[in-house]
């Protein structure tokens, strides 16, 4: 009996902690499996709750500590900020999108495409190709058929994407309400949750505060910088489209959405618009729009985006570019948020590691690059 009690005491002193850690890891793994379908909504809600935390704290103070009511006001404010502009923009997009589709259809029905392919430009183009690229048989090139195929394919894809968007409207609405539900509870209980996580963490308090501050700063900079870049590029694109006579609201918004795609984003919108103007015979407007989008819109993407996203994140434009591009290729559109968050977290952990093991690291490793 005495030996049995001694064995049990030895187990509880030496074996219980590894066992608890094993069970904890398994429980966390199972919890991740449960939360994984809502991971995007959870991360976005965390970012929004952190972004509006000053508003929530101010409202909580004004409402005499009623955090639930303050969090509800924050959710309503976010809904107002998102839904009202989205409704106005969507209404303008639908109207001008229908007008654009009607104009293209009318142009094709009136024989605009046939007139273009049978014009003097076609003969001049064929003569130029025959003179400079003699190994290409121009007569075998079915220019009319290829252009019609391109127009037909583009129209089918546009309609398919529109149908998919309508079909996914219920899913988008559901995800939006899930995100707002999470924002409510994270705004109300986020401070207590962070305090609990910090109590369980083995890191020192100043290290924990630095990690939280860095991740919050990166998230705020990425979200606000991306939105500001999209708005600026959308406005600049809309101005260019309005000058050349293309429906500005619809294509400006489309260009703003496309700006979230790294490297080639806005070109997916303005290059087809330039091609459309060229097909219509408006060469001056086509050249102007190409220069406008390449110089004005492109400069916003190349110079303003890194500056706007740098913000409080303390990340160089080079790292921001790598984070956006790598995140997009790894996670898709979600990677535009995940990439900078992951890289920012890794950088602050490297800084903490450097400070923690400064005495063991060689002196050369602690010198900044370029010195």
UniProtKB/TrEMBL annotation:
Membrane protein topology class: Multi-pass membrane protein
Domain of life: Bacteria
InterPro entries registered for this protein in UniProt: AI-2E-like
Protein name: Permease
Source organism phylogeny: Bacteria, Pseudomonadati, Thermodesulfobacteriota, Desulfovibrionia, Desulfovibrionales
Keywords, comma-separated and alphabetical: Membrane, Transmembrane, Transmembrane helix
Ranges that cross the membrane: 12-32, 38-56, 68-88, 165-186, 222-243, 249-270, 277-300, 320-353
GO cellular component: membrane
PANTHER family, per database record: TRANSMEMBRANE PROTEIN (PTHR21716), TRANSMEMBRANE PROTEIN 245 (PTHR21716:SF4)
Similarity comment text for this entry: Belongs to the autoinducer-2 exporter (AI-2E) (TC 2.A.86) family.
Cellular compartments annotated: Membrane
Main location: membrane
Organism name: Megalodesulfovibrio gigas (strain ATCC 19364 / DSM 1382 / NCIMB 9332 / VKM B-1759) (Desulfovibrio gigas)
């Amino acid at each position: 009996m005495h030996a049995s009690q001694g064995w049990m005491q030895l187990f509880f002193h030496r074996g219980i902690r590894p066992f608890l850690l094993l069970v904890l890891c398994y429980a966390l793994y199972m919890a991740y499996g449960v939360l994984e379908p809502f991971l995007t909504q959870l991360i976005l809600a965390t970012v929004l709750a952190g972004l509006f935390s000053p508003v929530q704290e101010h409202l909580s103070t004004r409402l005499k500590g009623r955090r639930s009511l303050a969090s509800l006001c924050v959710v309503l404010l976010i809904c107002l900020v998102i839904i009202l502009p989205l409704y106005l923009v969507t209404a303008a997009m639908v109207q001008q999108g229908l007008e654009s589709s009607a104009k293209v259809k009318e142009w094709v029905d009136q024989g605009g495409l046939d007139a273009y392919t049978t014009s003097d430009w076609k003969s001049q183009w064929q003569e130029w190709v025959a003179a400079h690229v003699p190994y290409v048989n121009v007569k075998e090139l079915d220019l009319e058929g290829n252009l019609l195929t391109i127009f037909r394919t583009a129209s089918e894809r546009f309609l398919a994407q529109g149908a998919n968007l309508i079909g996914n409207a219920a899913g988008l609405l559901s995800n939006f309400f899930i995100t707002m539900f999470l924002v409510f509870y994270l705004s109300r209980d986020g401070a207590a949750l962070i305090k609990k996580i910090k109590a369980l963490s083995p890191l020192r308090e100043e290290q924990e505060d630095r990690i939280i501050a860095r991740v919050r700063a990166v998230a705020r900079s990425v979200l606000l910088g991306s939105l500001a870049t999209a708005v600026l590029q959308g406005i600049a694109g809309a101005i260019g489209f309005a000058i050349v006579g293309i429906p500005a609201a619809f294509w400006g918004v489309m260009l703003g959405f496309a700006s979230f795609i790294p490297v080639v984003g806005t070109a997916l919108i303005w290059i087809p618009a330039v091609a459309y103007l060229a097909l219509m015979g408006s060469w001056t407007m086509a050249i102007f729009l190409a220069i406008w989008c390449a110089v004005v819109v492109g400069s916003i993407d190349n110079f303003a985006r890194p500056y706007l996203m740098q913000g409080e994140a303390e990340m160089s434009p080079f790292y921001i570019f790598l984070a956006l591009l790598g995140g997009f290729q790894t996670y898709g559109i979600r990677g535009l948020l995940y990439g900078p968050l992951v890289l920012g977290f890794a950088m602050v952990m490297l800084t903490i590691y450097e400070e923690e093991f400064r005495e063991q690291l060689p002196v050369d490793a602690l010198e900044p690059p370029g010195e």
